[in-house]
Design a protein that fits this description.
By secondary structure, the chain is of the alpha/beta class. About 40% of the residues lie in helices and about 15% in strands. Strands 1-2-10-7-8-9 form a six-stranded mixed β-sheet, sandwiched between helices. The structure holds pyridoxal-5'-phosphate.
Length: about 300
């Protein structure tokens, strides 16, 4: 079996900074730490998962140079897959939509991906749109020599994020009381938790979703504007029984938080990070000064038009 391993990708992906927020937490609140993942090569933590999925597909013989790979994606996963595909001589087909940031669609094309656009209604991310994208990707995956990356089912997704938890445990130098993060597939949340646990950390786990698409808290998804999360169906990699709490956060607060984070902490991130930090600050304020809350900075703010 050929194990695809790329020296550049090995060095470029991961090893990101863990940053303690200094200005946004109130004086009476606990510590808030953000694992800032925007330094990965395509600007998001999806690089970790894309490399892990492709590497293991090569190892199993599911992929070989010259093959095609397909995925339906809002663009973060797609950009990460397109980047890895360009490194290992496979063609990547992304099924996406005009509901997602133009910069992500452009980035996928820049890495040589074919991008198929499923039109949205008023640029809203809805459960119907996601279903239509999925259907098209499934059709393409039936064609010969085409590997379905399967960001919603591949066993290699979680493995890609285990190092996030291990890095946090190495970097923080104390116990983590709470880990909170928004969920799309749930891969980053579950993989990071696994890494934290493997490193001897056992934080309280709080999964987050947009208030405008409160599937986990109410059973009903809805239209919202936070890319990558709140998909309107059960996140395949999230075990709800292992979560201590699910919290829904207003997307408007998340967008405002992106601006505050950039201005007051110098961390320019996307809206899912704004949502994560809104929740982390809320939790740290509830838990008080001795608490340590960690969350994820999923991607870079320059991907979005605020
Ligand atoms: C920007 C962004 N934030 C958060 C998420 C959620 O990550 P996960 O699918 O691992 O739950 C995604 C997933 O696509 C994303 O693109």
């Amino acid at each position: 079996m050929e194990l695809f391993s790329d020296p550049y990708l090995e060095q470029a992906i991961g090893g990101t900074p863990l940053v303690q927020l200094k200005n946004l937490p109130s004086p009476s609140s606990g510590q808030v730490w953000v694992k800032v993942e925007s330094g990965n090569p395509t600007g998001s933590y999806k690089d970790r998962m894309a490399y892990c999925v492709v590497k293991n597909a090569f190892a199993r013989g599911d992929l070989k140079p010259g093959d095609r790979m397909v995925e339906y994606t809002g663009g973060s996963t797609g950009t990460a897959l397109a980047h890895v595909a360009a490194r290992c001589e496979i063609k990547f087909i992304a099924v996406s939509s005009d509901a997602f940031a133009q910069s992500k669609l452009d980035a996928m094309r820049a890495y040589g991906a074919e991008v198929i656009i499923i039109p949205s209604e008023e640029r809203k991310i809805t459960p119907e749109l996601i279903a239509a994208m999925k259907q098209r990707a499934y059709e393409i995956a039936e064609e010969p020599n085409t590997f379905y990356a399967d960001q919603f089912g591949s066993p290699d997704v979680i493995g890609g994020y285990v190092p996030v938890g291990k890095e946090i445990a190495d970097q923080i130098g104390s116990d983590v009381d709470v880990f909170c993060a928004a969920v799309g597939t749930g891969g980053a949340f579950t993989g990071t938790t696994k890494g934290l646990n493997q490193a001897g950390q056992a934080p309280e786990l709080i999964a987050l979703e947009p208030l405008q698409s409160p599937f986990l808290t109410t059973g009903q998804g809805g239209a919202h504007r936070i890319e990558g999360i709140g998909l309107g169906f059960a996140p395949p990699f999230l075990n709800l029984d292992r979560c201590d709490e699910i919290r829904a956060i207003d997307e408007n607060e998340a967008f405002q938080m992106c601006k505050k984070l950039a201005v007051e902490e110098g961390i320019f991130c996307g809206p899912s990070t704004g949502l994560n930090v809104t929740a982390a600050l809320e939790i740290a304020s509830e838990r008080g000064p001795d608490s340590v809350t960690v969350t994820l900075g999923c991607d870079h703010g320059s991907k979005y038009n605020y």
